[in-house]
Structures are given as structure tokens and as C-alpha cells.
Hints:
Number of helices: 2
Largest sheet: 8 strands, mixed
Oligomer: single chain
Strand content: 35-45%
Structural class: alpha+beta
Amino acid sequence: MIKPYLMFDRSCEEAFKLYEEAFGGEIIEFQKYGDMPPNPNFPVAEEDKSLVLHAQLKLAENGYIMGSDSQREQTSGDNFAISVELNSEEKALHAWNLLKEEGHVHMDLQATFFAKLHGSVKDKYGHTWMFTVM
């Protein structure tokens, strides 16, 4: 399944509450950075623990919007990604390897506390793809 993924600069929670009201949807997932297990490779400052790590809004009509507060500075036009959710590690690795050629890896495709594999890559055309294998 492919879903738009929006990145925010400290305003994800506020935006998703607005989108929920605007589209008659329902926020079905809201995780904060402070909910993550401690990880020395990914330290979270105390003032960032209340920021949104991951949010998902189910739209009333059809579809989903996902988003988070990014730890990278966001600029207009570079504040979204295409989220690809797959159930096959083999299919994910195939697509990942093709898209990372001449691209830029933001986060290596790796096991995380919430998925078998997760990663983010900007392809050579400038589009960011987020992969998640459950």
C-alpha cells in the first residue's frame, strides 16, 4: 500500500488535529519520540520527547495520511515522502536497491522496534521513499 507521508517542523500534532476535523477522519495512530525505547544511536533531547514520531489519519472517504515531526530541517517541497508498506522483505530489498542507486540514503533499511525493516531513501529524481516491512 502506498500512502503520503508529511514531515513537519514541530507542528505535526496540531496539523493532524486540523486534518482530522477538516476531512472527517480519525487519528488511528499517534506515537511520540518519548515513547521510543532508549537508543544510544538515536538520542532524543528532553524537549523533543513530546514531538510526534508517527501519526496516521484514516480519512472518512477513503485513504490515509501519515506524518511526523522531522529531526531534519524541512523546506517547502521537501517535506513529504511516499510511504511504501510491503509484507515481503525480498520485494522491499529489490525496490530499495534500485531506488538508492545514484540516490541518497536518509536511513538505512534495517530492523526497528516497530517493523522487520524500515528505511528512507531519496531517489536520483529527488523523491523520498519510506519503506516499511511489517
